[in-house]
Amino acid sequence: MSGSESPHFGPRGVRRGAVLTLVFASALATAAATNSLPQADSTPPVIPTRAVASTVDSGEVAAAAAKAMADGKSGTEAAEEVVSRSGDRWGAVYDKGEYEEFEQALDGEYTGVGLSARRTAGGLMEVTRVHPGGPAAGAGIRAGDTVRDIDGADVASRPVTDVMALLRGDALGEGGAGKSAGAGTPVVLGLERAGHRWTRTLRRARLSTESVTVGKLTGGARMIKVDAFTKGSGEQVRDAVRDAPRGAGILLDLRGNGGGLVSEAVKAASAFLDGGLVATYDIKGAQRALYADPGGDTGRPVVVLVDSGTMSAAELVTGALQDRGRSITVGSRTFGKGSVQMPSTLPDGSVAELTVGHYRTPAGHTVDGRGITPDLAASDHAGQQAQTVLSGLGGTA
């Protein structure tokens, strides 16, 4: 499993998930606040994924917050208590400051030190990528280095998502949720390279994400790596497909992609489809559908690479291309996050998220709690196996 401290998330086992949980929801929150939820033929909503439907509605949560405020108590805390008892495992309440931070993340920005990391087979936290011009790059940290500890705390047994949250400055655990360090705050990293150990103090900075990267493979094929579906990423995928040599295959790498804006995911899927269904979904029982734009490239071979960190909007793309017979999927079963949440603004400006529905693939398969099974199972050498499959499909220029 890999991670990045840019807006990119995996499950953390706590109600307050990683940053993109809210990024997914913010566009839908705006629609809910203005009573303008989109129809099937308009811009699709953001669909964050959750496990079960909530047993409480937003009105009840807002009423509890308002009563607490009238009594001189915290409306946010009162709302959190109601949501925690609702049976909605992933329901959550976020204060106004948090939500503003998440909205900035929609534009592909984050606060951190500028590195991505993964857990190796030996259990080490290995740096996989360093953001050019970021604090980590300025400190001489390179891909392949090992992060041993953060602020003196050993990270050997920590989930990747927790390690990335610590680098960003997100407080973890009970009592720490909702507290985040800002740009300019220090973080001390214990590092190792080729047996040499050292410590560096970095200062977090506001950075722009690079959600989509494009690389060349043998024979002219292209690898398009999408870390998250932030604003503009869908068009970047379409541009990369258009710019690839005629007949060259595409390896679409969605490993570790925690999702993002569904509108961007639909644009990305549209790069490989000529219209047609991408997914269906329901909001409080109302059935709707998402459709690809016409004019996508339906000829060149496509292989989609996934793993257990492929979630939500990334699963939507995976399921659409798989069900429509447009790709071969290689890797391991995806995470399985396929529920719809609707955020609502509370009287004190905080935001409550409650589950209201689920989405399904074009063939009607439910993603939530099940994930997507790849056509070819692969783990340690999935990337190489995916390239082999692509080559077998004739995906070379």
Structural commentary:
There is one protein chain. This protein has ten helices and 20 strands. Strand 18 (339-345) and strand 19 (351-360) form a beta hairpin. It has two domains: 17-108 and 209-391, Alpha-Beta Complex (2-enoyl-CoA Hydratase, Chain A, domain 1); 113-208, Pdz3 Domain. The strands form five sheets. A six-stranded mixed beta sheet has the order 11-12-13-16-17-20, with helices on both faces. Strands 2, 14, 15, 18 and 19 form a five-stranded antiparallel beta sheet that branches. A four-stranded antiparallel beta sheet has the order 7-6-8-9, with helices on one face. It is α+β, with helices and mostly antiparallel strands and 397 residues long. It is globular, with a radius of gyration of 21 Å. 53% of the residues are buried. 26% of the residues lie in helices and 26% in strands.
From the coordinates shown, what is the CATH architecture of the largest domain?
Alpha-Beta Complex
> What general form does the structure show?
globular
Outline the low-pLDDT stretches: 5-52, 173-178
What count of structural domains? 2
**Arithmetic mean pLDDT:** 81
Number of strands: 20
Q: Strand-residue fraction?
A: 25-35%
Largest sheet: 6 strands, mixed
How many helical stretches?
A: 10
CATH class of the largest domain: Alpha Beta
User: What is the CATH homology-level superfamily of the largest domain?
Assistant: 2-enoyl-CoA Hydratase, Chain A, domain 1
End-to-end Cα distance, whole Å, is: 31 Å
Q: Give the strand line-up of the largest sheet.
A: 11-12-13-16-17-20
* Topology pattern, helix = H, strand = E: EHHHEHEEEHEEHEEEEEHEHEEEHEEEEH
**Helix/sheet category:** alpha+beta
Share in helix: 25-40%
CATH topology of the largest domain: 2-enoyl-CoA Hydratase, Chain A, domain 1
- CA radius of gyration is 21 Å
